[in-house]
Design a protein that fits this description.
Blueprint: E1 3-7, E2 10-14, H1 16-28, E3 33-36, H2 41-44, E4 59-64, E5 67-77, H3 82-101, E6 107-116
Helix pairs in contact: 1-3
InterPro entries: Asp23
Family: Belongs to the asp23 family.
Protein name: Asp23/Gls24 family envelope stress response protein
């Protein structure tokens, strides 16, 4: 599914890979985030930290009319405050998407899939 943005000069189409790259960079730059993991973590029962080229497996983008929301799946470091990490991720993702891609997100849902011990 690609995101379409109507403009006065035409329609802009953004692929999920482009959006996931921007979102994944915003997520992994936060303190306490070990990395992004697959949204099917519990089904696969394998922790695999996603690399930059696989961020689409850890980002779910949904569009209903004019409403756009994002779900991100992360792995956090032991000893960090999860609520603060999630709030920072929400703010960073909203800011980067609005600044770099030019559209607003209504919701940024952060799913903590696990905690990694050092």
């Amino acid at each position: 599914m690609a995101l379409t943005i109507p403009t006065p000069n035409g329609v802009i189409t953004l692929t999920n890979e482009a959006i996931a790259t921007v979102i994944g960079a915003a997520v992994t730059d936060n303190y306490g985030v070990v990395g992004m993991v697959s949204k099917h973590f519990f089904r696969d029962n394998i922790i695999e930290i996603l690399r930059r080229e696989n961020y689409t497996r850890g980002v779910v983008l949904s569009q209903e009319g004019d409403s756009v929301s994002v779900d991100v799946y992360i792995l956090v470091s032991y000893g960090t405050k999860i609520s603060v990490i999630c709030r920072n991720i929400q703010e960073a993702v909203k800011y980067n998407v609005e600044r770099l891609l030019g559209f607003e997100l209504d919701y940024v849902n952060v799913h903590v899939q696990g905690v990694k011990l050092d």
